[in-house]
Specification:
Layout lengths: L5 E3 L4 H6 L5 H9 L2 H9 L5 H14 L1 H7 E3 L9 H12 L3 E3 L2 H13 L1 H7 L3 E10 L6 E10 L4 E7 L4 H10 L2 H14 L7 E7 L6 E6 L2 H23 L36
Parallel strand pairs: 2-3, 6-7
Antiparallel strand pairs: 1-4, 4-5, 5-6, 7-8
Helix pairs in contact: 2-3, 2-10, 2-11, 4-5, 4-7, 10-11
Length: 280
Amino acid sequence: MTIPMGIVYDLPFAEYLAIDAAHATSLIHYWKDSPKHGRHHDEHRHETSAMADGKAFHAATVEPDRFAREFAPKPEGMKFSTKEGKAWQAEQLAAGRAIIEHPAAVLGMRDAVLADEYARSYLDRPGNAEVSLFWTDERTGLACKARFDYLCVDETNVGLKSSLSLDPRWFKGDATKRGYMLQWALYEDAAKACGLTPPEIIEICVENTPPHDVTVYRVRGRALAKGHADARWALALYAEAERTGLYPGRTSGVVDFEPPEWADNGDEAVNTEGLEVDDE
């Protein structure tokens, strides 16, 4: 499929996925795991229940009309093993609607975000949801793509994320391990390459269980600097793998096993009483 360089509005998600270009989700696997993992993700992508709920949450929050057309919240207590449940399920699938298995969580997150004054201060601005951007990375020559959850007319890039917890002590570590900073940096690259002014990047985060606490993050400074460093590394790995056709894993050859620092007990003997120990 030909890559449509620049900003594309109203591109169906399936068509966006079909376009072969480097993107944040794949690059995060290159950065966090290895080129082998990144390639496997690209070739074996499948939608998990959590991903389906995430898509429904996004649509319910920023595209309510599309949510009503394309999603069907599963009625409470309904079982698809019953005659009634099978009939309802068949009706929704025939109409092309995706069934939301956990509607209470999806709608609870939506309601919490829309009730938060700081989140609404961005989502109430004129703009477009699910905006696709395509560009060429100057350093590697790779074709790249990104998809903004909500792009305001004033060029503020607003994202939506759900999380187990927004306790800063936990969330910041989880966001780092998940590669969110790389993703945000790639969004900044996309915006600049497509002619937008350096955008303000806002991430609206909500807990996926009650009471669905909400935090609105502004992404800048050290977070973006770290993200750009990670993105450059991931893009270099991606480009080299594409050039050579080799997708190495985390290690090669024979690696000496060393225990982690926390496992070092010094000269203290470990009490193995009551444990099954292989003496061979």
